[in-house]
Amino acid sequence: MDINYHAHQTPQFRVLSDEQIAVIYRATLECLQRTGVVIRNAEARHLLAAAGADVDGERVRIPPHIVQDAVAAAPRSFTIWGRDGQHRLQVVPDRVYFGPGPTCTYYIDPYTGERRKARRGDPGTTARVCDALEHIDYAMGLGLIDDVHHRLAPVYEFAEMIANTGKPVFPWAYSRDNMQDIYDIAVAVAGSEEALRRRPNFALFATFQSPLIHTDEELGNALWCAERGVPVIYIGGGTAGSNAPITAAGLFVIYLAGALSGLAAIQLKRRGAAVCLGGVPQAMNLATASPAYGSPEMSLYSAALSDISRWLGVPFMGTAGASEAKVLDLQAAIESTMQVVLSGLSGATLVHDVGFLDCADIGSLEMLVMTDEIIAMMRRIMRGIEVSDDTLMLDLIDHVGPGGEFVSTKETARRCRTEIWNPTLMDRDRWAQWEAAGAKTMQERIREKLRRILETHQPPPLPAGAAERIEAILQRAEERVAGA
Question: Is the pTM of this model over 0.90?
């Protein structure tokens, strides 16, 4: 048998057809021209007006050619670097990366198990755990720290995270001052502005609001970053039935109108700026009207938005590894697994919120550790099956023959660890061995792994002098808010 290619089919599924996506896109263009969006950032309004948009106060109606040009200008791929030079995210179609999310109010203390307000030290601890986990690809803070001046929380968070991981970091910012401080910290780590432009070690996480609103600060920060070559993740959502239509198709129009109008402003600021659009589309909890973060609809909607983004040729950030459970339990495992698998199969580029509990109100490192194992299983599935002369192994089958065994062959020894995934948390022992080893539950194994990381893992050190420069930036920020 002669096979002149390696057939390596990656499993994938689609929610929307190309025809359905085209209908949604045309409806979005009509929405932007007829209804428009509220843009509270004056610079963005000016850029859009100069390109031909109709500006009436803060309401901006955008003709299709501006959006179509923005989609054409946005790069299909770009790279976000970790400060160690080893870890990088090549943002390209169908390569899926996972990480935590930001801004939970509460944090599960990894030592006591207490649910408490997030505080200084937590973002650094989260980043160190992200650094240690093989299948967590970038760091976000997992909790909104509560014990610093409220205007400086994003700056402290970024300073802690970048010091505790070699992987890329996705900070957020309240203000232009926050953005400048974060940028200065990134420059201190990179060595120079030129080095940071060449290899950006962070991407800004900025949001737009549903329905159809861009705030001054968030869009302003995105424009500021685009001008300096910092990649931007511009993410919104909408909850079906409350701040978006109850139908999925209507929700997609609301989301896409916000995302594409933001993309248009950013591309007008700097054509070719690296942008990843993102969405956290949710169903409404029918009992409370609040978002249902663990619902099957959220995974379905996210997969559909991934389809739309792929059709447009723009990278997409989705959501997975989150749950509405209040503790790490069976509900958390079920919801996280469903989300991770659908995110992987849909080909979302960046996937955030791993480690969230209680509808994005609690950050849990145990949830992060558990989901790392789920992601590992999903990645083995996504690797698919190679069919080639080499893998068909006809010569080996002929050599072993009927009734033989393959355990002792060199080919089995050479390939076993790549062909068969080996767990780090899942138990595969027989009952007697499991009992002799202490009869540990999954939760106990998760806690043990987390504590090993906290006790032993050391992230790569900062470059010489960077810690001192970061401390000076934080001190400058404290003096600024004290004098405000």
Answer: yes
